Amino acid sequence: MELPSNLLPNEASPEWMNRADNAWQLTAATLVGMQSIPGLVILYGSMVKKKWAVNSAFMALYAFAAVIICWVGWGYRMSFGEKLVFFLGKPGVALDADLLLGQAFLGMFPTATMVFFQLVFAAITVILIGGALLGRMNFGAWMLFVPLWLTFSYTIGAYSVWCPDGWLAKLGVIDFAGGYVIHLSSGVAGFTAAYWVGPRASGDRDSFLPNNMILMLGGAGLLWMGWSGFNGGAPAAASLDASLAVLNTHVCAATSLMTWLILDTVFFGKPRVFGAIQGMITGLVCITPAAGVVQGWAAMLMGVFSGSIPWYTMMVLHNKLKFLTQVDDTMSIFHSHAIAGSLGGILTGFFAMPELCRLFYMVPDWEKYIGLAYALQEDRTSKGLRQMGIQLVGILFIVCLNIVMTSFICLLIRTLVPLRLAEDELRIGDDAVHGEEGYALWGDGEIFENSKNNSVFDMEEFVSVPSNSLDDV
After folding, report:
1. What pLDDT digit, counting tens, does each position of 269-281 carry?
2. pTM to 2 decimals?
């Protein structure tokens, strides 16, 4: 029986390519890309003081563009290309049609699709780091930091954990969709960079209220829904495992949000939007290394842990430990990504189900992937303990890598340009840094005063008017 004509292979659709897989992978990549732009652009721009709205959103936009150029220039092949050393691939360009139109190293779709899919993961990692630096980093220093960190830190983590030739991949670490490579890396790197850059202005650090709560919720919503592509694209196929990963992702995120919200209400007396968003993020981060290799009940339990342990470290422990209070982590990236990412990696080592690992890895030695909970049931305790040990080794490696490389990069940049903005720029904000303002109306009845640096508008400057007479202007 012959296939319908639309399913027959041809020059543009070779026999090795699965059209459904390719379509899903491109869709998943686009969803992840939308987590960054517009997702994190909106979230960052609205969660900060209005005087930093433009700068914060622009840091995310710039990073996304810069990563694209670096990724196709050398980053992809350093992360997934031919082996240079046990933790890094050989740098090379990923722009040649012979490479891009051939089959990817994983999955039944072209390498071009894989380059794009991994590109958006690399981009969001750097943007997440930026969340720890909002409200004071010199934009020129950020322009240097993005390509340097991608080159000397991200590629090493990605190759070690995800590339089949990477040493942690060969060891058997389970990181389904980036709990280590993306979230633990960004949390540790962001916290380390925040230490070297220094704190915000004292007034900003004491009071840094969001400028638009509704937009903040919109950005958070884009981040949440985009996670369907984040975790659902990890199997590199439109498969059973992809479906399970998507469902587990939302179950864990919802449970974590509810847990955080309950704790806020019980201990602080009010349910808070900021807390709900943090709970959502910690749930999404925690499930990422496990999404397709744990059962639904385990995903819900992980949500309880991710909504409570990071809550405790952020809301209670943070104020008791001197080294945490000394570092100004603007968006609490350390708690929401480093703590939650580490927690997810450990819980993956406990809850990973061997049969689901087989569906994900599709390798002959799939039985080596076993969570401690199942190892205890099957009288394979030593194998389960080994998996837990491997998960901890992966955490230790990513933490050390990012502390060392991020410190090196910040110290290098500091010899070229200041890491932190000048005091007058910190006092003024967007207008001093970019010559632009995020909002025309601001404050209690004050009308936007035309920026001296903005040549777009040539209108007369307005002055403050009583709040009850705005309709008369």
Report:
1. 999 999 999 999 9
2. 0.90
In angstroms, the CA 174 to CA 187 distance is 19
Dihedral sign of CA atoms 418, 424, 426, 429 in order: negative
- With CA atoms as reference, report the closest residue to 79 among 27, 152, 130, 128: 152
Paired strand residues for 10: 13
The neighbour count for residue 297, using CB atoms within 10 Å, is 10
For 89, the enclosing helix (H) or strand (E) is strand 88-89
Of 283, 302, 218, the closest CA to residue 43 belongs to 218
Distances in Å between the Cα of 112 and the Cα atoms of 8, 185, 263 are 22, 25, 45
- Beta-carbon-side half-sphere exposure of residue 168 (alpha carbons within 13 Å): 25
Identify the helix (H) or strand (E) that includes residue 447.
strand 446-447
Q: Which two tokens stand for residue 457?
A: 């508008």
Residue 442 CA to residue 440 CA, distance in Å, equals: 6
Structure tokens at 13: 């659709």
Q: Which two tokens stand for residue 372?
A: 């401690």
The CA radius of gyration of the chain, in Å to the nearest whole number, is 23
Q: What is the pLDDT of residues 109-148, one digit of tens each?
A: 999 999 999 999 999 999 999 999 999 999 999 999 999 9
- Cα–Cα distance measured from residue 232 to residue 178, given in angstroms and rounded to the nearest whole number: 12
- Tell me which H or E stretch contains 85: strand 83-85
> Can you say whether the dihedral through the CA atoms of 451, 456, 457, 458 is positive or negative?
positive
Nearest to 358 by CA among 233, 241, 237: 241
Residue 279 and residue 311 in contact, taking contact as beta carbons nearer than 8 Å = yes
